[in-house]
Write a structure and sequence with these properties.
Layout: H1 10-19, E1 23-27, H2 31-40, E2 44-47, H3 51-54, H4 66-79, E3 84-88, H5 98-110, E4 116-118, H6 126-134, E5 139-144, H7 150-153, H8 165-179, E6 183-187, H9 191-200, E7 205-208, E8 216-219, H10 221-224, H11 242-259, H12 271-276
Parallel strand pairs: 1-2, 1-8, 2-3, 3-4, 4-5, 5-6, 6-7, 7-8
Helix pairs in contact: 2-4, 4-5, 5-6, 6-8, 8-9
Bound molecules: 3-methyl-2-oxobutanoic acid.
Length: 293
């Protein structure tokens, strides 16, 4: 009999830091990839607003809506049995007022089914984090390069190198921990600053472009799987070249369709067969990709 694995919780993540075990986090946007990442052992899956760029084709994450994150959260949660699923609060879903942010985080938890939410920014959101946590909504912080502030920052740039940058990041991280965040993403900051932040906090830090001194790492799954051959920032390690693999597979399929090599007789149905087998639709004929077993 197949047993259901224990779901990773915010307490599991804290214990991992205490035991010195690194946390592996990836972004996920649909049930099929979520199932693959979950079965591979990823601890945390982030339904990131990066979906605006890698799924929707925008240049920034700004156009992503709350409804879109909730929709992708539902798909990702359906694909997982073990991973902790984080729903990303999109641009302007939490900045205008604490009340609106509470309502919107509630929508991600209730309608998206995620297990916690993430929001970008430091001390400025301390009051909001306190309110969310008091309401039972676990919050992951995100400091350093915060892509929703793309226009304010003047682009996707490494943060914290300016005079006072290190202290500001440390203050922000401490303020988020004090407010009740269970973890903080550190994006695109010098490795030594990330190491100092990690050492000064009791909650786990998850780095992306922040060196090896964090308690865990996160990458945009499409980047680490090599879906886009033209995109390879320094902090991304490509573990596959799926873009090339997909193009080769699709090229072979197109050639087979054009020459008539696909489908074969074995991939087709015949009247004689229909007489011997039930006429109702056989679910085994259809893909079950993405379904929880
Ligand atoms: O939206 C996202 O994918 C993120 C990660 C890069 C941390 O915020």
């Amino acid at each position: 009999m197949q047993t259901t694995p224990r779901r990773v919780t915010i307490q599991t993540l804290r214990q991992k830091k205490e035991k010195g075990e690194r946390i592996a986090m990836l972004t996920a946007y649909d049930a099929t990839f979520a199932r693959l990442f979950d079965e591979s052992g990823a601890d945390v899956l982030l339904v990131g607003d990066s979906l605006g760029m890698v799924v929707q084709g925008h240049d920034t994450t700004l156009p992503v809506t709350l409804e879109e994150i909730a929709y992708h959260c539902r798909a990702v949660v359906r694909g997982t049995r073990r991973a902790h699923v984080v729903g990303d609060m999109p641009f302007m879903s939490y900045q205008a007022s604490i009340e609106q942010a509470m309502t919107n985080a509630g929508i991600l938890m209730k309608e998206g089914g995620c297990h916690s939410v993430k929001l970008e920014g430091g001390a400025v959101h301390a009051e909001l984090v306190k309110r969310l946590v008091a309401a039972g909504i676990p919050v992951m912080g995100h400091i350093g390069l915060t892509p929703q502030s793309y226009h304010q920052l003047g682009g996707f740039k490494v943060q914290g190198r300016d005079p006072g940058g290190r202290e500001r990041l440390l203050d922000d991280a401490r303020a988020l921990e004090e407010a009740g965040c269970y973890s903080i993403v550190l994006e695109a900051i010098p490795a030594d600053i990330a190491r100092d932040i990690t050492a000064s906090l009791s909650i786990p830090t998850i780095g992306i472009g922040a060196g090896t001194g964090c308690d865990g790492q996160v990458l945009v799954s499409y980047d680490m799987l090599g879906m886009d051959e033209t995109f390879k920032p320094r902090f991304v390690r490509r573990y596959a070249t799926l873009g090339q693999t997909i193009k080769a597979a699709v090229g072979s399929y197109i050639a087979d369709v054009q020459t008539g090599a696909f489908p074969s007789d074995a991939e087709s149905f015949s009247i004689a067969e229909n007489k011997a087998t039930p006429t109702s639709i056989d679910p085994a004929l259809y893909s079950t990709a993405g379904k929880k077993k």
